[in-house]
Design goal:
TIM Barrel, 8-stranded parallel beta barrel, 10 helices, 8 strands, globular, Oxidoreductase, AKR_Detox_Biosynth
Length: about 325
């Protein structure tokens, strides 16, 4: 079975999506050849009455425990650094951060909730300039050295900080970041627009990010909010103000034309455009049921004809 270039986003597993529905999605994903499961220790503190995260990881852990053998078929991606320490009301000022003790405690909590001895990738969820960068880099490298983590990634970090961290790791002979996780989609925000509804100043995939990944083939690029929370296929989903500019209308027109010519949904064209581009992007897609998952799986399996990809690229 061909590998599926799609990460299953599990942000709302255990909160907005109950355990039974979450398990159905996980089962379908694995049965279809999916391997990448993305979560975080803070998911989803804002949606839970407790004000703390961990619900997503617990649901995944319970699912793994009930499915003997499935652990060997999946790659688990989790994040540390953004879990609140005193409840949701104080976030983001009270986030756990990226000090060595916080990283160690964060991954230990994740492993406990997931019921596993290691994860394939661990991300620095959001940057923490209060912690010395060398301390952060060394703490993550020690997780790899111990076999607790397979690879390291940086989410919502500016590229200059990623490059500096990778240089520190390289000079010391430590494992460094080999993946980036940021926000992108087919339509693009205005330059200098803040990331909607988030505290991630550097959360966008910029042209500089694409160039950096292009020049460093060892780095994978993962994209969250690739489908803009359903905007492409649902009239009731508003478009964030950051996308309010003339180029958006032209890109949406091209997207609708290509989807119509291929007889697929606009979501599927967006996913095919991301995964088949250069550099290729791994979209993280959260779904509320197996129907949405099947649509996403068909999208990443779709190969866009070169002429249609060129039309999409040149629009806007």
């Amino acid at each position: 079975m061909a590998q599926v270039n799609l990460a299953l986003g599990t942000m709302y597993f255990g909160t907005r999506l109950d355990g039974r529905a979450s398990w159905e999605v996980l089962d379908r994903f694995v049965d279809a050849g999916g391997t990448l499961i993305d979560t975080a220790d803070c998911y989803s503190f804002w949606a839970d009455p407790s004000g703390y995260g961990g619900q997503s990881e617990r649901v995944i852990g319970e699912w793994l425990a009930s499915r003997p053998g499935v652990r060997d078929r999946v790659s688990i991606s989790t994040k540390v650094g953004a879990e609140p320490t005193t409840g949701a009301d104080g976030w983001p000022a009270n986030r756990e951060g990226l000090s060595a003790p916080a990283i160690k405690a964060g991954i230990e909590g994740s492993l406990r909730r997931l019921g596993v001895e290691h994860v394939e990738i661990c991300w620095a969820h959001m940057e923490d300039r209060s912690a010395p960068l060398e301390e952060t880099v060394q703490a993550f490298a020690e997780l790899v050295e111990a076999g607790t983590v397979g690879r390291l990634g940086a989410s919502n970090h500016p590229i200059w900080r990623v490059e500096r961290a990778r240089n520190i790791a390289g000079a010391a002979g430590w494992a460094g970041y080999t993946a980036l996780q940021l926000r992108t989609s087919y339509i693009r925000p205005r330059p200098d627009s803040p990331v909607p509804d988030q505290n991630h100043r550097f959360g966008w995939v910029s042209e500089e990010v694409l160039d950096y990944v292009d020049c460093h083939p060892e780095i994978d690029l993962w994209a969250y909010t690739a489908l803009l929370n359903g905007f492409y296929v649902r009239d009731d989903r508003p478009l964030p103000e950051a996308y309010d500019h003339p180029g958006t209308a032209r890109r949406l027109e091209a997207l609708a034309e290509v989807a119509g010519e291929l007889g697929v949904t606009r979501n599927q064209v967006v996913l095919a455009w991301l995964t088949g581009g250069s550099p290729a992007v791994t979209p993280i897609v959260g779904v509320s049921g197996v129907a949405q998952l099947d649509e996403a799986l068909a999208g990443v399996a779709l190969e866009l004809p070169e002429e249609l990809r060129r039309r999409l690229d040149q629009a806007g």
